[in-house]
Hints:
This protein is mostly beta strands. Helix content is about 0%, strand content about 55%. The mean pLDDT is about 95.
Amino acid sequence: MLEVRRSLDRGYADHGWLKSYHTFSFADYYDPVYEEFGPLRVINEDRIKPGKGYDNQPHRDIEILTYVLAGELDHKDSLGNAAVLRPGDVQRLSAGAGVEQTEFNPSTFQEVHLLQIWIKPSAEGLEPGYEQKRFTVNEKRGRLRLVASRTGDDGSVRIQQDVRVYTGFFNAAERVEFEVGKERRAYAHVASGSIAVNETRLNAGDGVKITRPGRFALQSGRDAEILMFDLP
């Protein structure tokens, strides 16, 4: 019912300017057990050095969510979008039939720490698109705030797949229950701090697959920031 993925069991790549942990198979890292989880294809935890970044990366047929934990990230893409992402921002880039993006750390002294998430879309060859929204700490304090969904519910960004993504901050007595519906599954990823899913303690970088329906408690947080994925 709960299959824990510890931080140190993830794939790891050190490119000098980029240090990246891979929850699922990515690039030269392959794990047949953690190749994907339903449509959830990638959770990469990246740290990019000041003045460094990616240039003109091509993508297609993937929904890319970028979630900055610390620092700033400059974004440009072939659709004509240009933006700066900061903590609290959620960016959605639907690659669809094809798009290129450039991501760059503009700081001269601070690394940027981020999560990049890939979700497989409901179909191939869809029209590319872009969206970025900010969600404040107060919106996420002691609760799960919907930040991405197929229908854009509650002001979330729209992704082209039947997936709902939530984020929340939890400390001390703050607690919430998350319900996994019939014929659904979920994945929880701890971005920072520590939290328990039911009685299973998770620390920063840890994740857990939830493979059965039911209600699950997020509790006993220690300055925790968590992402929860509701998946088909």
